[in-house]
Amino acid sequence: MGRSASSVATSIVDSVSSVVLGKRAEIVLVTAGMLAGGHVLLEDVPGVGKTLLAKSLARSVGGTAGRVQGTADLMPADITGVTVYDRARGEWDFHPGPIFHNVVLVDEINRATPRAQSALLEAMAEDQVTVDGTAHALPSPFFVIATQNPYGDVGTFPLVEGQSDRFALVVTLGLPGREAERAVLRGEGGPPALEHIRAVVDGPDVTAAMAEVDRAYVAPAVADYVLDIVEATRARPDLDHGASPRAARTLVQVAKAYAVIAGRDFVAPDDVKAVAVAVLAHRLGAVARRGTDATRRLVEDILGTVAAPTA
Question: Sign of the CA dihedral 106, 196, 185, 57?
Fold first, then answer.
C-alpha cells in the first residue's frame, strides 16, 4: 500500500523546514497548493527566503527540476524551447527549454516582460507548450513555483491578471521570528542546509497524494460557505471585480489539500479560512492599483463577516 497524502506532505514540509527556518505554516500552504494540482507564487521583499524555499521544495520532491531567471531580455523561447533545423538530416528537431521538468522554479517572474511571462500561460493551464505549431506535453507531475518582488519595485513588470490567476495561491513569507533568525546566524538552515537536501518523495507518491486530495469530501454547507465568501468579494464596491468561478473551484481544491495534509478526508470551514487569503487576494480587481497587501486585508475582513457553518 502506498504512502498517505498526509505522510507525503509531512515529509516534504519537514525537509523544506530544515532549510527555511520558522516558516512551517507558509511551507504547509505551498505544499497544499502543489497537492491541489496548482502552482504557487511567493511574493515578498528580497532576502527573506523565497528562492531558498522554492529550491528546497524542488530538491525534496522526486523528479527533475528546472530553473528560469526572470530578466528584462528573457524571451518565450528561453522558457519553452526552440525548433532547430538539422541540415545533415534535413529535419527539424525540438530542443526543450527549462519548462520541461517536474518542478520549475521561475525566479523573479515579474522582472520578465509580459511577453516572456505569457510563455508560461499555456504550460500552467494545460500542461503543454506549443512551439512552431506543435504541441509538446509536459512531464507529470508538473508544478511551477515562482517568486516575485513586491508590486511596484523598480525594474519589475506587474503580472497580467490572466497570468496571476494561473497561480493557485500567493504566499508571503515575511520576516523570520527572532529565534529562527538567531538559528540562521548560528549557521543552521539556509543555503548550507540546502546542499544536504535529498528527495524525500517521488513522482508516484505525489501523484497518489493528489488523487487522495481529489477524493476529499466537501459537505454542502462548506460548499455554500465558499460561495458566500466568493459572493462577498463580488459585492464589494471598492473592487473592479470579485473572485471568479475558477477562484471558487481553486479555493475548494486547496482547502481539500489542506485538510488531507492534516490527516482528514473531509473539508472543515477552518480549512477554507486557512487558505482563503492566499487563494483569493491576488485574484481581486484592486490588485493592479493597490497591491496584494491591500487585498489580503480585504479578504481577511470578509472572512470576519461571513458566517461559517457550525457542526
Answer: positive
